[in-house]
Design goal:
The structure is a homotetramer. In chain A, about 50% of the residues lie in helices and about 15% in strands. Chain A is of the alpha+beta class. In chain A, strand 13 (about 350-355) and strand 14 (about 360) form a beta hairpin. The longest helix of chain A has about 35 residues, at about 280-315. The radius of gyration of chain A is 26 Å and the shape is globular. The relative contact order of chain A is 0.10.
């Protein structure tokens, strides 16, 4: 089904328990802050119903029904490239928020269900595919909840001292389903979603087996409490906030995050995709990480393009575009932006195959490289654009001052830049940068979709160390290189060449 | 005179024209935002009147009168060390804001007045010393205004296209004084100051000579309009804002900055310390830069100590304090903090002497190194502490949620860290970090008291290239090293040693 | 023609004037140092004659003759991918040195010849294609000479003070050809090549038009003197040098570089591809840079794989492979290595089209990103591997000590690492690292195929600033974004969404 | 006693067992390579006998005898400043190599002997002071041996698998002394020293107590074998090598290092300063580290000054000195150089007091900061100077070419730089840089006197975390800050200020 915006809005009036800034929210669609998030949610349905974007976002399922493309399973490199395209184009409009965490959670669940079913004889594939059918027919908005609140980071889930709920766990196993408790933190787009897929955020050992749990549930289930985060800007978006905070007035990072508390929530068995198979926690965590970091890269493409462009504009507005050090800074920004695009594209072109399942996963190494690329450089990029912009990014003029007719003539006169550039254009670029380099972006770039350390871990996990080591052994003349078939197959052409060389003339003094 | 807090508060009701958030401010001492800045101003007078700090902050002038120590001229290394101490201790309480920009402006003006008087036969020393007497007897709060609005950064002041007022300039020279026009931007503590010292921010050539102007004026002079900056947090500081923003609720960076517009302001000759001596603009800009960067370093000592400490606390609260990579990150923070302290102290111990004037200036090279040390590393420090803190720094719980009895039990339970640490302690440390790593700190660390490029320029200007090059020539065997006396004086002890060595045994195969 | 090794060796006995270490060289194929370079040259012909590699390296030209694939013109993305493959595989054996500089010079010359002919009516395409035919039929080894000796870098070629030959120039124009003078520096593989393509290294203005010159010449032409560079290791490669310097004993970077002096060398017109068309100097410099940086990336693939592998081996040999900080360092190395591979591959997949000429050029932005990737990180990689290896990389045991039966038992006993690893394996890995992180690699990584600054310049040149700026304007609400068609075409879906939203509930306190 | 050069040279003919490049050395003073090291050793005695340097290097001991100043115990900040001065000035001439490792070993042994004697009732102070008397009367050259060969770095000394001698240990305890076995690696200046102080390189636990051993021994003791390292340049220093390698021809890093093998060496009790007190291994390792890193900083002062100077010369010779990015690079180098000097000076001014012993130790935090400063930046500095120098640093012209009259005119003409600079000056500066940025310097800067990780560890160990945390708690409003006296003593002046403020005017809309 291709859901309409109206159907979507109606679906959110579902009795959920949600707080914002200490107040209970009656209706997320009319709440001054949360409506910004909901508006972003609407975009997902605008796109599928729009004649221009329909081809990208709508696909036919096996029954020939029109469904949201992102609810289909990626089977080829082309599917991943289309997914990447959908994520990038959707992100330009602040959309796909309801079709990214959940989509990636479903994809990861399917991959690991296949592995569990074949190794352990479970029937999780059936559960996952049942959910896919449900989603294709309802086109519900779904988030994915991975990060637990964690308690003492130095202790395993089952070893926590104060209580056992620092990681979401199976508190009870019943005939019809499981009962789960725990809390997940900074789960994006939750106020605007209908459902959530919950999955573990770490590797487990056997004592932690109750924490090896994957399931989906509607967000209005009994026992669920949502606490939404501090808004980036207070109150409703108005002409003033659009001028002062052009990014946050549209979709503040702060607005969309939620803490989700599970207080003995019942989940029927058919909604469960893992329940105790602790040996596969790492698989699900890594698979979700890889799928979702591809999304992170896509989301950042417009953000980095915009930041690079604003930096170029500010260089021009300030009359600095001819200076070599400014050009170098702009060049460096373009380098980061284009690397992000090229490597994330390569990650789709050269996917990892999930052979038995006839599925593909974005290339683990390349996806993590692309994510690390922008995350590791974001703070530096912030520094660079602040440097080009000048000190005024720290204390730019407000809309209120600009609109006051007594102050306006002074501001018009004194805050101009290069001749020919209207002062207001310059001020808007500066306000954009203030908003774009706010603390939330820096910490979000690092932590969202996995910390830098998470990518490092994946580099180590995904790299082909046997090949590197065999090549190195051969290069250094260390025996054992021929244990790797690819390197063993390489003949010693150098020896062949040596034979052809004439004898040495020993008369030189060298 | 040692001014009382009461005298100070009364002095601010002086009819000045000042705007905040688009509204004209009637009285800065009662305005919800600006009173935070004024409260910081009060601290300057609390310190001089406090029995514990009096010894540090009060000195006797040549007439034997008690005066604020910072209004005396630094003549020795000890004076600079005491000044550094006063800046650091005052900054711990959010004070010395009224005795730093102005103090450094006065010191720089005195140094350059000496140079101009001796080279050009002017009598600027007299003007500066007259002002010092005025300040010693009134203890007025004084800011220093250096950064112009600049217009097209690629053009010299006199070559600007749209108008000639992008840099403050002498618009008219009259019998009794000068008339100035232009605008200065992000001038700290202005709403809480009585007076301002204005000085140029760049080097000038002869065509720019009207821009070579240094003077002081009361802030309520006719023709001055003040536009104060966007507050870091809106509204009055309350229990809620203290909990949510423990730094900004005390002294938001955003609160204290002002744009100062000079619309044909008259300045009597005795208030003028430079008027057209364009050859000395660089001297005044560099001298103020050096004095004021020492202040910047002092202001950052408590800030960096606090940030390092909070990072150590968060490591502990999260149960991470035993991990090697966390210890490395903490070690790196301690390294930056202690380098800042040691190098700024060395800058006072080994000052540059202003010989004829019997004055000292903080060591130019070392002061700039210390400033660069924290400014260049601040974004990285931000990244490091965000990394240790975890993703929750991006969306921490608000006071409003914490105080809601329905939400509180969930928050108490789930947001705990290591056993034994109250959840609220952990939340407060996180809120502190959110506040401390906000965008304003990053851009402030770079731009306030001069951009990174400004310090680079000073490294290049202050380094003893002749010595480096002479040493290098000698090391590389390039003639000309003996043109530098210190290097010429170094004898060739190696040759002496060679003579003592026995002959070589040539039987080895090496 | 597919040349044999024997034919190649014979061709080098051509009477050329070449010096090594201050001695005139009689025959490069028998000189103790230069034979290492010649041996590398032989590899080019071993590969084309080898049954396993023939398919990769041999192609058919339009006449159906077997020719070296690298002498054909790249017309499609597939051609570039094959070229990349040939460069990588050849580099694994120390080959393609005679088919890279020249190949890239020919490709760049062809592209720019097309532009000149169509804009200026010249007939350079004919000259280039004539040379291609010659090369396809002789399969001569060709180097490319770009870097001039430059003199005062602050002055243009024609403004040099001491003499006019700091950049190669047309000293005379005659009926049958031109006479050139000047000198090129660090021209790789020259001792082993038959011919050289000479091209400019910089942009020119009209006064420099005599410096806008592109041509080819045999290296034994009258007036050419070659001075080959200091060898990385002295003397002939022996069992000792292979043990001590496993890389340099095969193909020392130092061995292959030459200074080529042109002392009034005559070049017939048909060998000339540019002669005074100064407006196209930049085109040829940039085109060659892009083609040749793709080669640089390919050459570095095996080098980075080997270095990453040796680091992994050393971690293991030292018993350190389980430590998190060691894994992070290895992960970072793998990241750089795989980024280099992925981005250089993308550069071939998304080439820039030279439309009228039916040719392709590797993607300028991506090629430069890939080159910068390893060049900017090479010194850091060096630091990382030295760190993992331990201090012994600074002073490893020599072959001579290892082979001395009195020392051997001590060395066997004490220089072991983890149990089970033969001491000699560990020592060989350390010797490899000493060789691989030698200064020549660091400076080579930066300067060969263009300095870091050269890539920065290309980022700035190649980036699509209009698109970035238009996107940024739209994001910041600055008019003018609709001047870019791609951005203009993006509709305001946000407004559409806004219409669908219900009215706001104003009863909240947010 | 103030030893003469002649006495010193004679003392080295002592029957020691030493190998170089696989050959047994008959006499270190006449061996082509090792005489370079011995010549450096002579410098120590030239300095004490030179009228100009005598005052710095000669002191009176308590008996009024003239002794080498560095053999006296540092008791005050002034002593440390003089020691620093002696280290820096001596290093300018390649001296103090025989009075640095040993001197620092003696100082560290004395500090820890005091701690052991007072806690455990041992009498190690007596042993140490006996040795000091011996040294003051003989002025022997002494090295310090800390780094063990280590075997499997993942295992403790006593847990090594292959054998127990990977760390030097007490193999037997006898009536008159101990018998030690093991091997130490890269021990500087050994061929030119008479004696060695041996100390542990790591923390120990009780099972490792036989490895907790500190002692001194003459280097010709029975059972000691020395294997000296691969020379940086082969053969004797000649006019050619001085031209080509101006640093290494004087004192190659590679020449002076030794592996010292202890094969059941007997050490009498009075030479032993620790024997089994495993709880104090960390103390001795850290104390030696701190003392010796101060030396490392001093040694690097001339090296960094020279490198900075050569970079400035090359900028000038290449005609690049006016370019902003070149000035920035030079400025950065000056920054590193001067930071190193200022922080190492501060480390002496604010020493750590060893209270009971009436001794001082260089400030641990600051010494490690200074060492880290240059070590962490050395590879980057290398990159920067190579960048300024240009590609020719990779393959500079050799002396042999320069001296060949056929090549010379070409080289004179083409390798010139800015007009007015003789070509040979430019070539010498380039050769200096090739030598100065060689791999050995990079790895030496990191590993000598302790890896980067070692300084990180010390930052963590030395930082005053309690103070940082207490300040942070106070800043964030977290209870417990008053447990630290310095922070507890800070009153809440902010509250005092608040009382003085007038009430708020609530009529504003902010």
């Amino acid at each position: 089904m291709i859901r309409t915006v109206e159907q979507y809005l109606e679906s959110l009036r579902d009795g959920r328990v949600i707080y914002n800034s200490g107040e209970k929210v009656k209706d997320v669609t009319t709440h001054p802050i949360l409506r910004r998030v909901v508006k972003g949610g609407c975009m997902d349905y605008v796109l599928t119903n729009d004649p221009e974007y329909r081809d990208l976002f709508v696909a036919q399922n096996e029954k020939g029904e029109d469904v949201h493309f992102l609810w289909t399973a990626p089977k080829t490199s082309e599917d991943l490239l289309r997914k990447r395209q959908a994520y990038i184009e959707g992100s330009r409009f602040g959309g796909v928020g309801l079709h990214s965490m959940g989509v990636d959670g479903l994809a990861a669940s399917r991959v690991v269900a296949g592995r569990m079913d074949s190794k352990l004889g479970t029937n999780y594939i059936e559960h996952v595919e049942l959910y896919r059918e449900h989603l294709q027919s309802t086109d519900a908005g779904v988030t994915g909840a991975q990060t637990d609140v964690k308690g003492d980071r130095g202790l395993h889930p089952a070893s926590q001292v104060q209580h056992k709920d620092y990681y979401v766990r199976i508190a009870d196993r019943q005939k019809d389903g499981i009962v789960v408790s725990g809390a997940k933190y900074h789960i994006s787009a939750t106020p605007a979603c209908n459902e959530v897929i919950v999955l573990p955020c770490r590797t487990h050992m056997e004592p932690d087996k109750d924490y090896a749990v994957v399931f989906w549930t509607p967000l209005n289930a009994e026992g669920i409490t949502l606490i939404s985060s501090e808004p980036t800007i207070r109150g409703l978006s108005t002409e003033e906030t659009y001028w002062d905070y052009p990014i946050s007035a549209r979709h503040g990072i702060g607005d969309s995050e939620c803490m989700i508390i599970f207080d003995n929530v019942f989940v029927p068995w058919e909604n469960v995709f893992q329940a105790g198979e602790w040996q596969f926690s790492r698989d699900i965590a890594y698979a979700f990480g890889t799928f979702h970091r591809l999304y992170a890269c896509c989301r950042m493409v417009p953000a980095m393009e915009n930041m690079t462009g604003i930096a170029a504009l500010m260089a021009e507005y300030n009359g600095l575009e001819k200076y070599a050090h400014i050009q170098n800074k702009l060049a460096w920004l373009a380098n980061v932006t284009e690397s992000l695009k090229a490597i994330s594209e390569a990650a789709c072109m050269f996917p990892d195959k999930e052979v038995e399942a006839d599925l593909v996963v974005p290339n683990g190494m390349l996806t993590n490289i692309a994510k690390y690329m922008y995350a590791d450089n974001f703070h530096e990029a912030t520094k660079v654009v602040q440097d080009i912009c000048g000190g005024i990014v720290a204390d730019p003029i407000q809309y209120r001052d600009w609109m006051n007719p007594e102050e306006r003539p002074f501001l018009e006169k004194y805050l101009g830049g290069k001749a020919g550039i209207p002062t207001e254009h310059r001020l808007k670029a500066i306000r954009y940068l203030k908003d774009a380099t706010g603390w939330q972006h820096g910490s979000h770039s690092i932590h969202a979709e996995g910390s830098l350390a998470a990518q490092m871990k994946m580099f180590y996990f995904d790299a082909d160390w046997d090949l590197y080591k065999a090549r190195a052994k051969r290069a250094a003349g260390i025996p054992g290189w021929d244990e790797h078939p690819a390197v063993a197959a390489t003949r010693d052409l150098g020896a062949l060449t040596e034979e052809k060389m004439p004898p040495v003339d020993t008369s030189y003094n060298v």
